[in-house]
Specification:
The chain folds into 2 domains: 111 residues, Arc Repressor Mutant, subunit A (Orthogonal Bundle), CATH 1.10.10; 190 residues, Jelly Rolls (Sandwich), CATH 2.60.120. The strands form 2 sheets. Strands 8-9-1-10-3-6-11 form a 7-stranded mixed β-sheet. A 4-stranded antiparallel β-sheet has the order 2-7-4-5, with no helix packed on it. The chain has 13 helices and 11 strands. The protein is an alpha+beta fold and 338 residues long. The radius of gyration is 22 Å and the shape is globular. α8 packs across α9 and α10 packs across α12.
């Protein structure tokens, strides 16, 4: 049972393989697995020229920026790539990459001032009188060890446009309700409103899910989970994997759900996701296992069976390979950080 395909289908022999798989909200399933929260940090109000640099984020953090008014350029110093942003644009950096935001003029910016309000939100401004920018910056936090799911299956950066224009290639106009959502965030971050910071925290958490949903619908998502979710022919497979990860799926079964031959399914899945269906299934299983191992009453043997493995040794080996530690080491670490 050591071959990758056999490990994928390993399960108790009496498992029912005949019941059909219903349509499943894969994104809700993903968010439940990874436990994500959000926090706004800085409201930037600048006149050009201006420039803000962000260091590489911690492994469990995803920086985000919302351009509320004006224009900006986001630059990746490592790759030298840039993207122009306009009011209503939302930027997520799922890999936490170091990046620079600036006005695009190339001029040297003046000093900035920072003050923190009673809620903890920092306001940063300057005295320059050029084109005005209003931008909210924050970050999402992902419960360990699920940051690896984000790094493996989401792009380095993700831009969603809410203002109804998609002049730039690779940036898709989002629905009007997302634009309304951004307007609500702008209003709540405008000043010292009672409960404003708590509301911004809640809105930030929801923002992550909304942006992923809109990006998966755009048809222009880069290779990864969002492109896979937006692929109409492969949608049944992603629903199956997220809805019943412990089921003894094999490649012919998943291909049949998509009305494809095994070879065609494997090719399309690999080309769209950048990884195989086996990889995705194992990663989803191990993420579920990491959550279950936190529970005091769950033994390693019970968790292995719950996520689809009759062989505990196979489960231990796969868990260590994907998570970088044994199930026992993860259990002890999780208990220490509570």
């Amino acid at each position: 049972m050591d071959a990758p395909l056999k490990m994928m289908v390993e399960r108790s022999e009496d498992s029912d393989q005949s019941s059909p798989v219903s349509h499943v909200d894969w994104l809700s399933q993903l968010v439940q697995i990874i436990t994500i929260t959000g926090r706004p940090e800085v409201r930037c109000a600048y006149g050009a020229p201006w420039r803000v640099a962000w260091d590489q984020a911690a492994t469990h953090e995803i920086p985000y920026h919302i351009v509320l008014k004006g224009r900006a350029v986001i630059e990746d110093p490592e790759t030298g790539t840039t993207k122009s942003l306009v009011a209503g644009d939302i930027v997520l950096l799922p890999h936490g990459s170091a990046h620079v935001l600036h006005d695009g003029s190339g001029k040297e910016p003046g000093p900035t001032r920072e003050r923190r309000d009673a809620s903890g939100l920092t306001f940063s401004d300057n005295d320059d009188v050029g084109e005005r920018l209003d931008m909210l910056c924050g970050r999402f936090f992902i419960g360990a060890p699920h940051d690896r799911l984000i790094r493996n299956y989401l792009p380095t950066n993700l831009v969603v446009r809410t203002n109804g224009s998609d002049d730039e290639a690779g940036i898709e106009s989002a629905s009007s309700h997302l634009a309304n959502f951004v307007r609500l965030i702008r209003e709540e971050s405008a000043g010292d409103r009672v409960g404003g910071y708590a509301i911004l925290n809640a809105l930030s958490s929801a923002l992550f899910t909304i942006v992923l949903r809109e990006a998966s619908k755009s048809g222009q998502a880069p290779k990864g989970l969002l492109a896979l979710a937006g692929h109409p022919r492969l949608a049944p497979a992603i629903s199956a994997i997220f809805s019943e990860p412990a089921r003894p799926w094999n490649l012919p079964d998943l291909a049949a759900l998509c009305n494809m031959s095994r070879a065609t399914f494997m090719r399309h899945f690999q080309d769209t996701l950048g990884r195989s269906a086996v990889d995705l299934l194992i990663d989803i299983r191990m993420s579920h296992a990491a959550n279950e191992l936190k529970k005091p009453t769950m033994t390693t043997e019970a968790v292995a069976e719950l996520v689809g493995y009759q062989s505990v040794s196979s489960f231990r080996r796969l868990f260590a390979d994907r998570m970088g530690m044994t199930p026992g080491e993860w259990r002890r670490l999780a208990r220490q950080v509570r």
